[in-house]
């Protein structure tokens, strides 16, 4: 055998020794980085999520569900999750950090979501949202309208008082159009009305029956806890109308839109009774109603009622004064005759008097005007045209106010009167008092009157301008700076993640720090790992509470990402 040159032989031996005795260090391009997040218990995107709390009947995009996990690679999912998604079309939404999974044929979205959740994937409907300030109630202008007497009508008066602008401003502030507690002293309400669902507090009846004596005199008798609207008499349904203008359930796809949209903030106080065709309220029932409203914490009291021919009512005046002293804003209809002055209690100095505009910006033919020596109207609002511009003032018109009627009366109707104007102001006042509970009743009254639009018939309620002014009120007109949030103490945390290749510890990541609670996850990164399948063991300590988690990941040909859920 021919002998090889010594140098070459040594090189060959060296090559043999290197390959047979000591593993070579991998080239630089053969090591990889593993990173991800370690989730605190209950915080991870890989935690199973029950679908029982999801509202699958709510408007949502059909034929798909949303997954909270964005990276659906094999490295990030359990075998069960991968199996559940096998054959499913998905679409990543990086900006949202979500993934769309399209529902397979033969399954409902809810069924598909339940299957995914059972296999560790958080799934939910892709809800369809709409702008908060554009109610979907049929009566709201631009929507379909409500049929009354064979014709369709809408709530054009909401446009005239600039309600949309007020709602838009509240939306921009991150608020919904909820109102402060508002008492409606009237004929009661239809407590079962579809468009008052979820809006009414229990309330009370201070005229359980209207007793007529042998001389034809009527008087309220008794009280109870049932404020249901009158079912007989000329004023049946009047209170349901007033309550609806202030607080019909709004953006519910039914009926009309109200100034305030949601929440149990309408307190029905029945002060009228009926006996046959006769209906009425008394000083006693009204006084009791005002006192009750104050005791229940009402911030606004609406009184779409009045007494003509009397400048005051001492008992009621005392109750009204006490209510005003308790920082309650009282609002009343001015009256429905044009030549008898303001009715009482609208004429009371502690009550805002509200007149009614016709279809134009002039006072309606029926709206009360102040008599000599009386105060001026505080505000006006649309009250329906009635017979304005004709020889007969007291007749119905297609330009009257679309509002609620009792269910027995057909649920919706047209009405005209200062009784319809006053609740619009009460609704606006309730919005302002909810937005700025720090403002007094007099301050809110001032904002409503100063921001009103000057028209031929007086000072027209401007909801948008009033909401803006209420928000910026204080400090000489500067924006009221909200209080700073309380300082939250930072919570200490520590994390250790070990990567095992077989039984050997191949790499470790540790980190410590402090952060504001709740700490949902901590990021880790382990470098210089060779290709292979690793078992990851994580220990997360948050404010001395220890949780542990494990996961597996396969690295092959590139850096990898793997999140770990602790329990």
UniProtKB/TrEMBL annotation:
SUPFAM superfamilies: Subtilisin-like (SSF52743)
Keyword annotations of the record: Hydrolase, Protease, Serine protease, Signal
Region (Disordered): 217-242
Signal peptide: 1-22
Signal found in the keyword field: yes
GO terms of molecular function: serine-type endopeptidase activity
Occurrences of domain Peptidase S8/S53 (ranges): 182-457
InterPro entries noted in UniProt: Peptidase_S8/S53_dom, Peptidase_S8/S53_dom_sf, Peptidase_S8_Asp-AS, Peptidase_S8_Ser-AS, Peptidase_S8_subtilisin-like, Peptidase_S8_subtilisin-rel
Active site: 186 (charge relay system), 238 (charge relay system), 419 (charge relay system)
Keyword Nucleus found: no
Gene Ontology annotations of biological process type: proteolysis
Family indicated by similarity: Belongs to the peptidase S8 family.
The protein's name: Serine protease
Species the sequence originates in: Deinococcus psychrotolerans
Highest classification ranks of the organism: Bacteria, Thermotogati, Deinococcota, Deinococci, Deinococcales
């Amino acid at each position: 055998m021919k002998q090889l040159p010594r140098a070459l032989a040594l090189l060959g031996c060296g090559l043999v020794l290197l390959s047979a005795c000591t593993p070579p260090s991998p080239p630089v391009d053969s090591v990889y980085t593993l990173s991800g997040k370690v989730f605190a218990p209950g915080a991870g995107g890989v935690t199973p999520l029950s679908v029982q709390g999801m509202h699958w009947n709510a408007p949502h995009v059909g034929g798909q569900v949303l997954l909270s996990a964005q990276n659906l690679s094999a490295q990030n999912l359990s075998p069960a999750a991968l199996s559940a998604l096998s054959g499913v079309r998905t679409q990543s939404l990086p900006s949202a950090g979500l993934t769309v999974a399209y529902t397979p044929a033969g399954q409902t979205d809810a069924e598909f979501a339940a299957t995914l959740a059972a296999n560790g994937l958080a799934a939910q409907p892709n809800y369809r949202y709409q702008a908060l300030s554009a109610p979907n109630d049929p009566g709201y202008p631009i929507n379909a309208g409500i049929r009354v007497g064979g014709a369709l009508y809408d709530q054009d008066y909401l446009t005239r008082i600039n309600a949309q602008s007020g709602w838009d401003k509240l939306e921009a502030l991150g608020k919904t159009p909820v109102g402060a507690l508002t008492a409606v002293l009237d004929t009661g309400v239809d407590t079962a009305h579809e468009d008052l669902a979820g809006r009414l507090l229990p309330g009370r009846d201070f005229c359980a029956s209207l007793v007529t004596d042998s001389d034809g005199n009527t008087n309220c008798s008794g009280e109870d806890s049932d404020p249901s609207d009158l079912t007989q008499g000329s004023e049946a349904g009047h209170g349901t109308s007033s309550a609806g203008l202030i607080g019909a359930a709004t953006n519910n796809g039914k009926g009309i839109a109200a100034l305030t949209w949601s929440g149990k903030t309408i307190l029905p106080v029945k002060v009228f009774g009926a006996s046959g065709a006769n209906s009425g309220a008394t000083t006693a029932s009204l006084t009791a109603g005002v006192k009750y409203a104050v005791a229940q914490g009402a911030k606004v009291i609406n009184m779409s009622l009045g007494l003509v021919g009397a400048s005051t009512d001492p008992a009621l005046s005392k109750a009204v004064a006490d209510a005003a002293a308790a920082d309650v804003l009282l609002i009343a209809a001015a009256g429905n005759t044009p030549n008898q002055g303001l009715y009482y209690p609208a004429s009371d100095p502690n009550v805002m008097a509200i007149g009614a505009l016709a279809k134009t910006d002039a006072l309606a033919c029926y709206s009360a005007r102040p008599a000599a020596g009386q105060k001026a109207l505080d505000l006006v609002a649309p009250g329906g045209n009635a017979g304005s511009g004709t020889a007969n003032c007291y007749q119905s018109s297609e330009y009257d106010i679309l509002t609620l009627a009792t269910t027995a009366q057909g649920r919706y109707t047209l009405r005209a009167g200062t009784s319809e104007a006053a609740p619009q102001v009460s609704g606006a006042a309730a919005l302002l008092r909810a937005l700025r509970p720090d403002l007094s009743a007099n301050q809110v009254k001032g904002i409503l009157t100063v921001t009103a639009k000057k028209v031929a018939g007086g000072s027209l309620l401007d909801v948008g301008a009033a909401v803006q002014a209420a928000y910026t009120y204080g400090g000489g007109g500067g924006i009221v700076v909200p209080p700073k949030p309380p300082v939250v103490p930072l919570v200490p945390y520590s994390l250790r993640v070990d990567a095992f290749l077989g039984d050997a510890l191949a790499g470790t990541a540790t980190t410590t720090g402090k952060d504001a609670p709740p700490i949902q996850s901590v990021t880790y990164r382990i470098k210089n790992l060779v290709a292979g399948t690793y078992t990851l063991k994580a220990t997360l300590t948050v404010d001395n509470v220890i949780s542990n988690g494990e996961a597996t990941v396969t690295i092959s040909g590139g850096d990898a990402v793997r999140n770990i859920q602790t329990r």
